């Protein structure tokens, strides 16, 4: 669990985050959504310790990363996996070498142990025979899966995903969403996803934080969205006819469960 408590951040005179509080729940996909300039990217960077807030706390299972000393923060970061927007793979390294990189940096495992762990996570993301391929030899969707494999190779307690579906076609995006969700549930990870993909919101939004202009505008689940009266949220989520249809279908599904 990650508790965000009264976080504020300004750059000069520009206020980016205004008293943001939220709880990112364990074993669930926690999505941060909002328009460009809403502050969601800054919030994620604060959560992983890349930016220091002006005020507030970011508590990982009760421990505040904002006030941690360097050694404690280093230990915490070894429990954090990160999937970057562009996958951020090393072009000159094979898939196997990319995934093995964190193990080389942060563990004392033997090569045999590292190799075994790499094969385990590559199989988990359906890339069993891709070890010796280079990033230039695989598709964008496969690169994302390599990025996921690298993010989970250290068995993290917390997983951050920055626009995981950026640049992918809808079908591949759906597969990435399903993979991230399954990994989250199976390993009881606290997963935080920064996304513009409204299909992701409706498919895997266990917990959703909607931000506008640095404010927490709305918070709830993908089912709560269906019945929300928040105009800004509805305008943002259901802007297209496709998503209007998805809303109507989900409303029917939710009503049938009652």
From TrEMBL:
SMART domains: AAA. Residues 2-238 form the ABC transporter domain. The keyword Nucleotide-binding applies. Gene3D superfamilies: P-loop containing nucleotide triphosphate hydrolases. The keyword ATP-binding applies. GO terms for molecular function: ATP binding; ATP hydrolysis activity. Keywords: ATP-binding, Nucleotide-binding, Transport. This is ATP-binding cassette domain-containing protein. It comes from Ilyomonas limi.
């Amino acid at each position: 669990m990650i508790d965000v408590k009264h976080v504020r951040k300004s750059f000069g005179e520009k206020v980016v985050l205004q008293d943001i509080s939220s709880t990112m729940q364990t074993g669930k996909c926690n999505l941060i959504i909002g328009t460009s300039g809403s502050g969601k990217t800054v919030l994620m960077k604060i959560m992983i310790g890349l930016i220091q807030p002006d005020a507030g706390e970011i508590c990982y299972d009760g421990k505040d990363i904002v006030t941690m000393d360097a050694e404690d923060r280093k230990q915490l970061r070894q429990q954090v996996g990160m999937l970057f927007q562009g996958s951020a793979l090393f072009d000159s390294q094979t898939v196997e070498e990319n995934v093995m990189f964190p193990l080389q940096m942060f563990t004392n495992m033997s090569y045999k142990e590292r190799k075994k762990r790499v094969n385990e996570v590559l199989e988990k993301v359906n890339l069993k025979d891709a070890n010796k391929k280079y990033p230039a030899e695989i598709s964008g969707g496969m690169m994302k899966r390599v990025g996921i494999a690298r993010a989970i190779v250290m068995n993290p307690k917390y997983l951050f995903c920055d626009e995981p579906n950026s640049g992918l076609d809808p079908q591949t995006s759906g597969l990435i969403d399903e993979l991230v969700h399954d990994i989250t549930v199976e390993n009881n990870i606290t997963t935080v996803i920064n996304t513009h993909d409204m299909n992701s919101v409706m498919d895997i939004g266990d917990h959703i934080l909607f931000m506008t202009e640095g404010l927490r505008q709305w918070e709830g689940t993908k089912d709560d969205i269906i019945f929300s009266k928040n105009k800004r949220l509805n305008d943002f989520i259901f802007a297209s006819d496709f998503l209007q249809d998805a809303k109507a279908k989900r409303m029917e599904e939710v009503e049938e469960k009652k």
